[in-house]
Amino acid sequence: MEFPVEKLIGAAAAAREKAYAPYSKFRVGAAILTKEGRYYTGCNIENASYGLTCCAERVALFKAVSNSERSFEAIAVTAGTKEFCPPCGACRQALAEFGANIKVYMANEAGEFQMQTVAELLPLSFTAEALAPGEDDGDDRKLP
Ligand code: THU
What we know:
- The chain has 144 residues and is α+β, with helices and mostly antiparallel strands.
- The protein has a single domain, classed as Cytidine Deaminase, domain 2, CATH 3.40.140.10.
- It is globular and about 45 Å long.
- The site of tetrahydrodeoxyuridine (THU) has 15 residues, from helix 2.
């Protein structure tokens, strides 16, 4: 699927403006693109109980899934830093639930990026196949 990578990264950068990161001051934005071409954005949301913090990537993913999306083409993430921002392990696992082939665009402050798939970022992810080898008919992952 052809899509404008700059637009996806731009959406992530705009979402970063909404970050709630009073503790780390590390502001992150993400934007996820569905196979049908819809965009959902997220920012990191911290909490005084630090462990409750949710990363930008999962906020974007969960917003999308809670809007009936199941199928994703790509996600972009930026922290507005010189370095490309890689998703944490928890976010890699959350993304893997919805597809090993999702492209992850890790961008820097200049909008440059490095792209790797979820499979490349998280080899041997834990999937439905591990819960019920050969028995998964995917029904529970379909929309009602
Ligand atoms: N964070 C993200 O939102 N995404 C990442 O890919 C890495 C980390 C957030 C969590 C926390 O609010 C802050 O960045 C510092 O870890």
